[in-house]
Amino acid sequence: MILFEDVVASFISNINDYAMLVVSFLGTLVLFLIGPILNLINIRRNKIFPDPKTIVITGASSGLGVGIALEYSKEGNNLLITGRNKERLEQVKTECAKKGANVEIALIDIADREAMKSLLLKYDKKYTVDLVVANAAVSELMLPEKLNFVDRTYDLVDINVYGMLNTVLPLIDNMEARGTGQIAITSSLTEMINFVFPAYTGSKGFCTSYGLTLRNRLAESGVGVSVIAPGFVYSRMSDSLKQESLPFCVTPEQGAKVIRDGLARNKAYIAFSLPTLLYTYFNSIIPPNLKDGWNYISTFFFSSPDFNRVEKKKQ
Where is the signal peptide (predicted)? Predict the structure, then answer.
């Protein structure tokens, strides 16, 4: 039985969370007033890049990576697309070539730091990379089911975090020396939810924070950095959820058009779809100590698969 004294004590212990709610409300009012001014500053300061001619895309054998590759495929453009499935990569190459692009493929493990560095620097020397899209990623559900919780976490971080860094870092010095170039890092709107998949959500949280901070670091040197934050996209990753339907799910082609438009405007954060963005943003402003209750309510609508749970030690 919950007593009145318990409620009061709980409220007092969570006073910081309620203070955060007040600040969120007041802060929103302030931002409504100064938002247009901030936007004008962005318009004045943000560098606009020409349409890229040489593009590198990791994770281009399925899903959003395919959509991005096709979106940038046209006569005169050079594409380097990477993945782990040769047959699917060859299919993507064929489709891109039909649109006039000069396409090279690379079967490579993006977690291999030296192999990625060698590949990217050789391609940059050959064509001069205008845009690199660090898109490759996996979720917990895409990894072998036989993996335990710990191994699943380490394997995912190798791909989603170190793989992203291995894609981005080798080209930064060359882009800074040229004073131009763009870096796009695919994150996810799930990083604002903190609900089911700790490794995936955590890895995407790193991608967002790293990308937006790197943007500030490289802006003065003329290099653009954008974070891509999709909601649900029809792909092998969404298929792994095994849900009959996913809310506001978009096709890779639809997502790629939003991404290209955002990169053309040098936007810091390219998120879609709007309903998913609004829902996840709402989740992000729920104070941490109150989020336990919200997550409990959410379990009635979505639960994690058994093999994603931490194993109980046998007695």
Answer: none
